[in-house]
Design brief:
This protein has helices at about 15-30, 70-80, 90-100, 100-130, 150-155, 190-205, 250-260; strands at about 5-10, 35, 45-50, 55-60, 65-70, 85-90, 135-140, 155-160, 165, 170-175, 180, 190, 215, 225-230, 240, 245, 245-250, 265-270, 275-280, 285, 300-305, 310-315. The protein has seven helices and 22 strands. Helix 1 runs parallel beside helix 4 (about 100-130) and helix 6 runs parallel beside helix 7 (about 250-260). The strands form six sheets. Strands 8-7-2-1-21-22 form a six-stranded mixed β-sheet. A six-stranded mixed β-sheet has the order 9-10-13-18-20-19, with helices on one face. About 30% of the residues lie in helices and about 30% in strands. It is α/β, with parallel strands linked by helices and about 325 residues long.
């Protein structure tokens, strides 16, 4: 029986290196569908200050970086982009003015986020469209709502957040970008009761849950796909016996929905430290994990047939 090959990843957090490897992997492994499941934007602008003549200076992970000339400057920008930052070349007075104007800083940050997403969509379309590879791309809880405009404006990308698509002849695809509350109160964090209501609305779009593929950014609670470092009241990582303490932080609502509807496949992200494949009843649940800050691609290659997941494997590059 024919199968559909999916390449899934999540939590890119703006990493140019991660995304480029993802695009290449879909071609290499002959995927028919690429799916990105949320947390796609980077954390910060990294200013590169022009210090005169052809000398530039910036900081990457607290380390001072210098560039001499256009070639070294481009290499520095690439290093920053590959690990998820947005490099911005500025004169010293421009940097000071931007830092002192929060509204302008935020607008610049948003513009850089959308610009990178548009570049990603163009890159994927260039390499995937001729091969007939479809692309589903969704925000996550960490992403500002403003980026949905860029996702929805793309003529190549389809956004499964609270929407239904036919993945192939047999399988429906739905998604939800929201997640249960975190200590950081991210843009799409909601209380679990509200998350359950959102999930029910999404599942109401599905005609055949048993054959559905669900892209839920948050993993189900206590699934082994949601183990994260335990934090104290000051948000400091707790340790015991010389080891970091881990605890489940996923969503009870997501777990309840999976137990109730038993979809064929659920795809999750959110918790970078807990990649894996787990079963809950007949449902295969996947968290590809993330090492975006190292420019590493973590992904999952999955084959689905009409009524079953034919096979799956993790990828790392």
């Amino acid at each position: 029986m024919a199968h559909t090959t999916l390449l899934y990843a999540s939590d890119l957090h703006g990493s140019e290196g991660f995304f480029r490897k993802f695009v290449s992997a879909a071609v290499t492994y002959k995927a028919q569908v690429g799916i990105v499941g949320g947390d796609v934007t980077g954390k910060a602008i990294t200013p590169i200050i022009h210090r005169g003549k052809e000398i530039y200076e910036g900081f990457l992970f607290g380390s001072r970086e210098t560039a001499n000339g256009a070639k070294e400057l481009e290499a520095l920008k690439t290093r920053m982009s590959n690990v998820g930052f947005y490099p911005l070349v500025l004169e010293p007075d421009e940097a000071q003015a931007l830092e002192s104007d929060p509204a302008k800083l935020n607008a610049t940050f948003m513009s850089l986020m959308k610009e990178r997403l548009n570049q990603w969509f163009e890159l994927a379309e260039k390499h995937w469209k001729p091969k007939g590879i479809r692309f589903f791309f969704m925000a996550g809880n960490d992403d500002p709502f403003d980026i949905d405009e860029a996702i929805n404006a793309s003529g190549f990308v389809q956004n499964p957040d609270a929407r239904r698509y036919m993945l192939d002849e047999y399988h429906e695809l739905v998604g939800l970008a929201s997640a249960n509350m975190t200590p950081w109160q991210c843009p799409r964090d909601v209380e679990d009761e509200a998350l359950l209501a959102q999930l029910e609305k999404v599942m109401a779009l599905v005609d055949s849950p048993a054959q559905a593929v669900c892209v839920f950014h948050a993993p189900p609670y206590d699934s082994q796909l949601d183990l994260a470092p335990a934090l104290d009241k000051n948000l400091k990582i707790e340790a015991g016996g010389g080891q970091v303490m881990m605890r489940p932080v996923g969503s009870p609502a997501v777990r309840a929905i999976i137990e109730k509807y038993q979809p064929l496949l659920t795809l999750h992200g959110h918790i970078h430290e807990s990649p894996g494949f787990r079963r809950m009843g007949r449902t295969l649940m996947v968290n590809a994990g993330s090492e975006y800050a190292e420019g590493i691609m973590r992904a999952a290659l999955i084959n689905v047939e009409k009524d079953k997941v034919k096979g799956y494997m993790p990828l790392s590059a």
